[in-house]
């Protein structure tokens, strides 16, 4: 019996990696005023950001419903597989709860679900590690122990380019947004234990990138044996700038460029960039 990996679309793994690792991605929905779209299937990231910048109101996102997970899980079981699902933190979406309901409804001990305690590349890094362990014949129990340890040691720093979407989403007042924009402030956020928190505000993108490099140095993180995700939201040039600066300052085992998808992008907006990695070997 082989182990098949399942995740939701907020993991934002590049398609070539999804295909290579044989991961089943179940999409959330993105809801604009006029229409609902399946994330990453009916609405690609580039199309999402084009619609976002012209939308009068922020789109909303809808979790995967239990019925969709039941269908996916049951088919994999019927095909003779054991299922390991790694999903967005329950604080950020009801998707993990839907997966739990689906698991309980089917009632199989061959379904295992895991809360990544994060989003985007945090889940992506766990999926990559799980896929490697599956290839070596590791058990689900051993994989779960490993990704639990990873979830406790994830590091992230994402630069927010514009405060417009934080104001639209009610996370900042209009006054705060106007003042921040006037000062060219770029908040840097982290995601830990399912909570999004601002850790610094820099004057401009260049200083924000420098702050991330200093943060890595001060943290004593050895990247020479690690995979680092460099993220951007519809701004590949900024992603390249972060990657180049990272490689100028550190020896990195592997850099994976990835797009910030519609769920995180709804709140962060376009023009963002940052890094995610796991601090353990």
Please specify the SSE layout and strand pairing.
Elements: E1 3-8, H1 15-21, E2 24-26, E3 29-31, E4 36-38, H2 45-54, E5 60-62, H3 66-78, E6 82-87, H4 95-106, E7 111-115, H5 121-135, H6 140-151, E8 154-159, H7 164-168, H8 174-182, E9 185-192, E10 195-203, H9 205-219, E11 227-232, H10 236-249, E12 254-259, H11 262-268, E13 273-278
Parallel strand pairs: 1-2, 1-6, 6-7, 11-12
Antiparallel strand pairs: 3-4, 3-5, 8-9, 8-13, 9-10, 11-13
Helix pairs in contact: 3-4, 5-6
Helical residue percent band? 40-55%
How many H/I helices? 11
**Radius of gyration over C-alpha positions, nearest whole angstrom:** 19 Å
Summarize model confidence as the mean pLDDT. 91
Low-confidence spans: none
Tally of strands: 13
Oligomer: single chain
What is the distance, rounded to the nearest whole angstrom, between the alpha carbons of the first and last residues?
Answer: 29 Å
Judging from the principal axes of the Cα atoms, what is the shape? globular
Largest sheet: 6 strands, mixed
Task: Return the structural class.
Answer: alpha/beta
Question: Approximately what portion of the residues adopt beta-strand conformation?
Answer: 15-25%
Q: Biggest sheet: strands side by side, in what order?
A: 10-9-8-13-11-12
Order of H and E elements:
EHEEEHEHEHEHHEHHEEHEHEHE
């Amino acid at each position: 019996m082989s182990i098949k990996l399942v995740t939701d679309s907020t993991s934002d793994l590049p398609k070539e990696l999804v295909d290579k690792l044989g991961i089943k991605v179940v999409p959330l929905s993105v809801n604009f005023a006029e229409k609902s779209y399946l994330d990453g299937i009916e609405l690609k990231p580039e199309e999402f950001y084009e619609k976002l910048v012209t939308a009068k109101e922020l789109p909303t996102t809808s979790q995967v419903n239990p019925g969709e997970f039941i269908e996916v899980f049951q088919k994999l079981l019927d095909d003779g597989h054991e299922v390991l699902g790694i999903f967005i933190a329950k604080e950020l979406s009801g998707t993990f709860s839907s997966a739990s309901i689906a698991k309980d409804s089917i009632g199989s001990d061959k379904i295992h679900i895991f809360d990544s305690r994060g989003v985007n590349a945090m889940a992506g890094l766990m999926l990559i590690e799980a896929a490697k362990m599956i290839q070596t014949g590791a058990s689900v129990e051993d994989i779960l122990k490993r990704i639990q340890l990873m979830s406790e040691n994830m590091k992230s720093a994402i630069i927010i380019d514009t405060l417009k979407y934080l104001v639209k989403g009610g996370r900042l007042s209009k006054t705060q947004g106007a003042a921040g924009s006037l000062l060219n402030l770029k908040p840097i956020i982290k995601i830990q234990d399912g909570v999004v928190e601002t850790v610094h505000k820099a004057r401009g993108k260049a200083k924000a990138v420098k702050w991330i490099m200093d943060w890595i140095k001060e943290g004593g993180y050895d990247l020479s044996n690690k995979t680092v995700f460099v993220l951007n939201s519809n701004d590949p040039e900024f992603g390249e700038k972060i990657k180049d600066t990272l490689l100028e300052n550190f020896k990195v085992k592997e850099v994976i460029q990835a797009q910030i998808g519609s769920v995180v992008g709804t709140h962060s907006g376009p023009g963002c960039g940052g890094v995610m990695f796991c601090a353990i070997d």
